[in-house]
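Hey, resending since the last one bounced:
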Amino acid sequence: MTLGEPQQRALHDAAVQVLRRNDLGTRTSAAPELYPHQWSWDSAFVAIGLARIDIPRAITELRGLLAAQWSTGMLPHIVFVPGAHGYLPDAERWGAQPAAARPPAVRTSGICQPPAQAIALQHVLDRAREKGGAELAATEAFLTETFDGWLAWHRWLARVRDPDGVGLVEIHHGWESGFDNSPRWDGPYSRVRPGTVAPFVRRDTDHVGDPAERPSDEEYTRYLWLIDQMRSVDFDDERVRDVIDFRVRDVFFSAVLAAASEVLADIGEEIGRGDATAELREIAVRFREGVAATVDPCTGLARDFDVRSGEWIGKATIAGFAPLVAGGDLELLSRQRTLLLGEHWMGHGVLRYPLPPSTSPMSADFRRRTCWRGPVWPFLNMLLGWASARDHAWDLRAVLRDASLDQLADRTFGEYYEPITGESLGSRDQAWTAAAALEWLG
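The structure tokens again:
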């Protein structure tokens, strides 16, 4: 099915309403009841949607995130809203206070997420060019004013999170990946041995729908233990590597850094910051090649690497298509697109829509209702669609767009979707899902 004009208008208007309802003024909550805080890469995708309807508000969204940047250059994965809790057991313990590098008067977490912000910046600039006039001038001024902040973020990732220069970003918590409880992390988490961890209090909002969709208490114990380990060394970049039980080179995070660094280099050239473009393109090449080097010749999927165990992680998850985000070798990208469209993924006969599940239905790890173990994520389809357009892979982009719009036509704007029935799961009125709808509608 393809949506007719009345359905597209209804979807557009409903998506706009979601973004307006989730608007906190300077930041957008992912979902007010469940995710009241500002989450780093959520905000990047939200800004893409906001740019379709309100460019100044999209700029404010990104400015608010940058205001929480640490002095090291890191952008934290959560900027906390005072007094809010939502889906975050023991929210107080996730805060990085009193970390020396944390900005004053802003409460944040002490971990990060993939750097999709530069991709959002390019979308905002593209929409501003379409508008012209004052909005274009404001966007160009914003980019000039904040460029050094975004550059510092990329430099921090390249220097601190790739200490061996292999072209892969090292993460210290599964939540840094954005793929919170993916099967990718089962092995690394199994080797986390919590010491004395204060009990956490689970609130009524800590589960939505089927409890099987969310992590168990035992899993949360490991999550919090890792945060406690980081806090024990005041979140110091160098010391964390010595104490943390979880050290994984994340191939999808690395792909986002490669793509975003190329985009930020393009922006730098356009605003007269040629002094930084060579460095950014070097980062892009380094991580693009790092991603490509992980591809398993047997499965065709990219892999993560567990630094602690010295082992590759070859789970059949959507992260295996990291090269499609990173870009690069045309033959590799062609093989990956064929695989993605094939019967193990988008072409599997049981799927409600031809959209990539977070874990292959052919995998023993596939769980159709469990967060990141099977469900379809609309924001991720939007990212894959953007990368497809960048690489002129119009056939893949067309399938992603049409199927995504069909999926989102129910206007529930679910956090994620059951891949076989198409049922909306997790929170409703999710901001980045609404943003995806607006971007697909154009």
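The beta strands are 38-39, 78-79, 169-171, 248-250, 304-306, 311-313, 416-417, 424-425.

Sorry for the duplicate.
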